[in-house]
Amino acid sequence: GETEYSFSSPTNRFDYWLTTPLKVIGNAGVQIFKIALLSADVEYIDYSGIKMHHGGSYDFYDENMAIREAYKSVLNYKAGVEFRVSSFSLRAGAAYYESPYKETEANKDAYVYSYSGGFGFRDNNFFVDLAYVYTDRQKLYYMYPYSNIEPSINSLNRHTILATLGMKF
Predict the structure, then answer these.
(1) Using CA atoms, how far apart are residues 65 and 51, in angstroms rounded to an integer?
(2) Which of 131-165 are b and which e, b meaning 16 or more Cβ less than 10 Å from the residue's Cβ?
(3) d(CA 82, CA 161)
């Protein structure tokens, strides 16, 4: 009683369009006596709104339904502070990215935390910035998704150093 569908392409190519999720960002910043700057961002992203489209006869119904059933909307938070004395700046920031998976999904507790710090120097026509970013990410991984084998916990700890040099002319 099952029907199997298959599509083949002589060029091994399949074209489709992807509608990305709705994203709304709100932010606020406060400058204190030209010495300090405080900022905060909140992002709303509706991952359940991702849709696949094709101009042909295939409608991606099953794929779009799986997206709606697995994903949800999230709020992500970012905050930062900068202190400036003369031509030198000192910066720090943090971010939290909520899991986009619904409560019924295995990765409902997945997360990403990010912390950064850095300093900068600005002159009339020259600037240099150096930053360090630590990212902590955790997600479950199922080697065999439809078995009773326990998942592994994948933790990623990434250390990134960023440098920017610039000249105005």
Answers:
(1) 9
(2) bebebeebbbeeeeeeeeeeeeeeeeeeeeeeeee
(3) 18
Which string of DSSP letters, residue by residue, matches 108-122?
Answer: TT-EEEEEEEEEEEE
Helix (H) or strand (E) holding 14: none
Q: How far apart are CA 44 and CA 98, in angstroms?
A: 10
Number of H helices, E strands in the chain: 1, 9
Residue 83 is encoded by which pair of tokens? 């202190």
Tokens of 71: 């994903």
Residues 69, 22: Cα–Cα separation, whole Å: 17
Nearest to 137 by CA among 101, 116, 102, 109: 109
Helix (H) or strand (E) holding 3: none
* Rounded Cα gap, residues 73 and 147, in angstroms: 28
CA pair distance 149, 51, nearest whole angstrom: 31
Instruction: Tell me the pTM.
Output: 0.78
Note the pLDDT of residue 11. 65
* pLDDT tens sequence across 75-92: 999 999 999 999 999 999
**What's the residue count for the chain?**
169
